[in-house]
Amino acid sequence: MRVNHLRSLGLFMAALSLQVISSVAATPLPMASPESQQVDPQRLERMHELVGGFINEGKYAGAATMVVRNGKIIDWQNWGKASIRTAESVEKDTIYRIYSLTKVITAVAVL
Questions:
Q1: Element (H, E) at 38
Q2: C-alpha–C-alpha distance, residues 1 and 34, integer Å
């Protein structure tokens, strides 16, 4: 009985997280400068160097980062390739494979 309850709860949380993700993805956020949101641009540059370094060293084929503060996008960058096997670049709408959905479900459950 408890297993069925947990399975139902897991399915509910998965459906809820997908709903949240799809509603967030459907609503574009406004853009703003880092300075207007009290974020030091030098800190963003350090992040760019770190992520870019991972790509250049071959640790990852590609990456995308987005920094949002106060509901506004202050930084959105793409690096590298969408796949090691293709020459396709990472774009803002690149779809990534998520191999473990338990992370998403756990994050929603914690919220």
A1: none
A2: 51
